[in-house]
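During the reporting period the student researcher (J.K.) took over the structure-prediction task from the postdoctoral fellow and processed the backlog of single-chain submissions. One of the processed entries is reproduced below for the supervisory committee.
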Amino acid sequence: MGGKHWVQPPHQRGMTLVELVVLLAIIGILASIAIPFYGYQVSQAKQGTALANSKAAIAQLYVTALTDEGANLTVTPSAGKSATTLTISALGSDRYYQTYHLPSGNTLYLNNQVLSCLSLNPKGIPVTTPACSILPQTVNTVPPLNWSIRNATGETVSFE
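J.K. obtained the following C-alpha coordinates:
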Protein backbone atom coordinates (compact mmCIF):
# COMPACT_ATOMS: atom_id res chain seq x y z
CA MET A 1 0.00 0.00 0.00
CA GLY A 2 1.45 3.19 -0.98
CA GLY A 3 0.76 6.54 0.59
CA LYS A 4 -2.06 8.70 -0.68
CA HIS A 5 -0.99 11.49 -2.93
CA TRP A 6 -3.16 14.55 -2.75
CA VAL A 7 -3.63 16.28 -6.10
CA GLN A 8 -4.97 19.85 -6.23
CA PRO A 9 -8.03 20.08 -8.46
CA PRO A 10 -7.53 22.42 -11.45
CA HIS A 11 -10.33 24.79 -10.43
CA GLN A 12 -8.58 25.66 -7.14
CA ARG A 13 -5.37 26.74 -8.74
CA GLY A 14 -3.78 30.09 -7.74
CA MET A 15 -2.96 33.00 -10.03
CA THR A 16 0.16 32.91 -12.12
CA LEU A 17 2.62 35.78 -12.05
CA VAL A 18 1.58 36.86 -15.55
CA GLU A 19 -2.09 37.04 -14.53
CA LEU A 20 -1.17 39.09 -11.48
CA VAL A 21 0.91 41.54 -13.56
CA VAL A 22 -1.95 41.93 -16.07
CA LEU A 23 -4.39 42.60 -13.22
CA LEU A 24 -2.08 45.23 -11.72
CA ALA A 25 -1.68 46.88 -15.14
CA ILE A 26 -5.47 47.10 -15.56
CA ILE A 27 -5.87 48.57 -12.07
CA GLY A 28 -3.11 51.10 -12.84
CA ILE A 29 -4.78 52.18 -16.08
CA LEU A 30 -8.15 52.59 -14.35
CA ALA A 31 -6.54 54.60 -11.53
CA SER A 32 -4.73 56.88 -14.01
CA ILE A 33 -8.12 57.73 -15.51
CA ALA A 34 -10.12 57.94 -12.28
CA ILE A 35 -7.80 60.07 -10.12
CA PRO A 36 -7.71 63.17 -12.39
CA PHE A 37 -11.45 62.86 -12.98
CA TYR A 38 -12.03 62.75 -9.22
CA GLY A 39 -9.95 65.92 -8.77
CA TYR A 40 -11.95 67.65 -11.49
CA GLN A 41 -15.23 66.62 -9.84
CA VAL A 42 -14.07 67.94 -6.45
CA SER A 43 -13.11 71.24 -8.09
CA GLN A 44 -16.51 71.49 -9.78
CA ALA A 45 -18.28 70.72 -6.50
CA LYS A 46 -16.36 73.50 -4.73
CA GLN A 47 -17.22 75.91 -7.56
CA GLY A 48 -20.89 74.95 -7.30
CA THR A 49 -20.85 75.40 -3.53
CA ALA A 50 -19.20 78.80 -3.87
CA LEU A 51 -21.78 79.90 -6.44
CA ALA A 52 -24.75 78.69 -4.38
CA ASN A 53 -23.45 80.25 -1.16
CA SER A 54 -22.64 83.54 -2.91
CA LYS A 55 -26.11 83.75 -4.44
CA ALA A 56 -27.69 82.99 -1.07
CA ALA A 57 -25.54 85.61 0.68
CA ILE A 58 -26.38 88.27 -1.91
CA ALA A 59 -30.09 87.44 -1.74
CA GLN A 60 -29.91 87.72 2.07
CA LEU A 61 -28.05 91.03 1.70
CA TYR A 62 -30.88 92.49 -0.39
CA VAL A 63 -33.60 91.08 1.89
CA THR A 64 -31.86 92.52 4.95
CA ALA A 65 -31.35 95.89 3.25
CA LEU A 66 -34.99 96.12 2.23
CA THR A 67 -36.45 94.97 5.56
CA ASP A 68 -34.11 96.90 7.86
CA GLU A 69 -32.39 100.26 7.45
CA GLY A 70 -29.90 98.83 4.98
CA ALA A 71 -27.34 96.05 5.19
CA ASN A 72 -23.62 95.25 5.16
CA LEU A 73 -21.84 92.40 3.42
CA THR A 74 -18.42 91.80 4.91
CA VAL A 75 -16.00 89.45 3.16
CA THR A 76 -13.31 87.90 5.34
CA PRO A 77 -10.68 86.25 3.11
CA SER A 78 -9.45 82.78 3.83
CA ALA A 79 -6.24 82.18 5.69
CA GLY A 80 -4.50 79.19 4.20
CA LYS A 81 -6.91 76.41 3.34
CA SER A 82 -9.88 77.66 5.33
CA ALA A 83 -13.01 79.09 3.74
CA THR A 84 -13.74 82.73 2.95
CA THR A 85 -16.56 84.02 5.16
CA LEU A 86 -19.41 86.25 3.95
CA THR A 87 -21.27 87.94 6.81
CA ILE A 88 -24.55 89.81 6.40
CA SER A 89 -25.62 92.33 9.06
CA ALA A 90 -28.18 95.14 9.30
CA LEU A 91 -26.93 98.72 9.14
CA GLY A 92 -26.83 100.40 12.53
CA SER A 93 -27.19 97.10 14.35
CA ASP A 94 -24.92 94.47 15.81
CA ARG A 95 -27.30 91.72 14.76
CA TYR A 96 -25.82 89.21 12.34
CA TYR A 97 -28.37 87.59 10.13
CA GLN A 98 -26.35 85.00 8.35
CA THR A 99 -22.83 83.80 7.69
CA TYR A 100 -21.91 82.00 4.49
CA HIS A 101 -18.68 80.27 3.51
CA LEU A 102 -16.94 80.00 0.17
CA PRO A 103 -14.68 76.96 -0.24
CA SER A 104 -10.95 77.73 -0.11
CA GLY A 105 -9.52 79.27 -3.24
CA ASN A 106 -12.77 81.04 -4.26
CA THR A 107 -13.11 84.82 -4.32
CA LEU A 108 -16.20 87.01 -4.66
CA TYR A 109 -16.03 89.79 -7.26
CA LEU A 110 -18.29 92.78 -7.88
CA ASN A 111 -17.97 94.39 -11.30
CA ASN A 112 -14.70 92.50 -11.90
CA GLN A 113 -13.06 93.73 -8.68
CA VAL A 114 -12.38 91.75 -5.51
CA LEU A 115 -15.05 92.57 -2.95
CA SER A 116 -14.09 93.21 0.68
CA CYS A 117 -17.33 94.81 1.85
CA LEU A 118 -20.51 96.35 0.51
CA SER A 119 -23.23 98.40 2.14
CA LEU A 120 -26.72 98.81 0.73
CA ASN A 121 -29.24 101.46 1.72
CA PRO A 122 -32.89 100.55 2.46
CA LYS A 123 -33.62 100.71 -1.28
CA GLY A 124 -30.90 98.17 -2.08
CA ILE A 125 -28.51 100.70 -3.64
CA PRO A 126 -24.78 100.61 -2.72
CA VAL A 127 -23.67 103.37 -0.34
CA THR A 128 -20.58 104.37 1.60
CA THR A 129 -20.93 103.83 5.35
CA PRO A 130 -18.55 103.89 8.33
CA ALA A 131 -18.68 100.09 8.34
CA CYS A 132 -17.74 99.88 4.68
CA SER A 133 -15.82 102.73 3.14
CA ILE A 134 -13.90 100.52 0.72
CA LEU A 135 -16.22 100.19 -2.23
CA PRO A 136 -15.22 98.96 -5.67
CA GLN A 137 -14.59 101.90 -8.00
CA THR A 138 -17.29 100.77 -10.42
CA VAL A 139 -20.00 100.45 -7.76
CA ASN A 140 -21.76 103.59 -9.08
CA THR A 141 -23.53 101.49 -11.67
CA VAL A 142 -27.28 101.07 -11.44
CA PRO A 143 -28.35 97.68 -10.06
CA PRO A 144 -28.26 94.87 -10.98
CA LEU A 145 -24.60 94.69 -10.15
CA ASN A 146 -22.31 92.20 -11.92
CA TRP A 147 -21.30 89.50 -9.44
CA SER A 148 -18.84 86.70 -10.12
CA ILE A 149 -16.90 83.97 -8.38
CA ARG A 150 -13.32 83.11 -9.34
CA ASN A 151 -11.55 80.00 -8.12
CA ALA A 152 -7.83 79.34 -7.63
CA THR A 153 -7.40 78.05 -11.20
CA GLY A 154 -8.86 81.26 -12.65
CA GLU A 155 -12.24 79.87 -13.70
CA THR A 156 -14.90 82.56 -13.36
CA VAL A 157 -18.66 82.14 -13.05
CA SER A 158 -20.78 85.29 -13.38
CA PHE A 159 -24.30 85.78 -12.05
CA GLU A 160 -26.77 88.52 -11.17
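The committee noted the following: Residues 54 and 102 are 7 Å apart (CA to CA).
J.K. will present the remaining backlog at the next meeting.
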